[in-house]
Design a protein that fits this description.
Blueprint lengths: L3 H10 L4 H8 L4 E5 L4 E3 L7 E7 L1 E7 L5 E8 L2 E2 L13 E4 L3 E7 H10 L1 H27 L2 H18 L7 E3 L4 H8 L3 H13 L3 E4 L2 E4 L2 H7 L20
Helix pairs in contact: 3-4, 5-7, 5-8, 6-7
């Protein structure tokens, strides 16, 4: 089975040779199809496999004591959704499909073997964890320190970039994969407030909406409104090889 989107993603920020690609392509995978709302993995599950999202969109979330849901992350095609299994025995969050998804599962031990055989693959996967950590920090700042308009504008900017990066949409022109309730579970405001902010962004000429289709009309203004810079997503490698003198 092809892991091309995963490999393409790693190559955007890391140097992988043909031998590295061959090692990744040799991983034994089992394919699963998830309907919207289906769980890839549940909180507390013992892990001996890792899962790669091949197509679709998924989200991770926590359920708090009152029963409320906080969405704490999103996954797009080409991303690992439960990398934790490489080093931890169980998972402490849920991963649920937002759209129709295809997932490839492979044994954690097999991926660890590949990492130890190839330092380049090990470094690339470590960079993936650093990028995920950077995204989590941005989400934390967005949730805790930005007003509602900034929160929604920021999320639209990140969705636009990550959907384009995964090959799931054109830059600045995408189907909004989230309901207003799901957006509220990300940014911590009511669905009614989300609706009002989306209308305001459209009225101000930053976006155009046609049902769930979003077209960014003025990227510079939307990014400014969302306090957004894509640097943390590491769309290209920022590590240059040492010069040889």
């Amino acid at each position: 089975m092809s892991l091309q989107k995963f490999i393409d993603r790693l190559r955007k920020h890391s140097d992988l040779g043909e031998g590295d690609v061959a090692r990744l392509q040799s991983l034994d995978t089992v394919s699963r199809q998830l309907a919207p709302g289906g769980f890839s993995v549940r909180d507390g599950t013992d892990l001996n496999t890792c899962s790669l999202l091949v197509s679709g969109i998924a989200a991770s979330h926590k359920i708090v004591g009152s029963g409320g849901r906080q969405i704490v992350g999103m996954f797009f095609a080409g991303e690992l959704v439960d990398f934790d299994g490489l080093f931890l025995s169980s998972i402490d969050y849920n991963v649920q499909a937002i759209s129709e998804c295809r997932v490839y599962d492979f044994h954690c031990e097999q991926l660890l073997d590949v990492m130890f055989q190839s330092p380049s693959i090990g470094k690339a996967l470590f960079r993936e964890t650093l990028i995920k950590s950077a995204i989590s920090r941005e989400w934390m700042a967005n949730l805790g320190r930005r007003d509602s308009r900034t929160k929604v504008a920021y999320l639209l900017c990140e969705l636009s970039v990550r959907l384009s990066q995964s090959g799931s949409a054109e830059a600045h022109d995408f189907m909004l994969p989230l309901t207003q309730e799901q957006i509220s579970d990300i940014i911590g405001v009511t669905p009614m407030h989300v609706s009002r902010v989306l209308k305001d962004l459209e009225k101000d000429g930053l976006i155009h909406r046609e049902r769930r289709k979003i077209r960014v009309l003025n990227w510079k203004l939307l990014a400014s409104a969302g306090d957004f810079s894509p640097t943390y997503l590491r769309l290209t490698s920022d590590r240059q090889p040492p010069s040889v003198t």
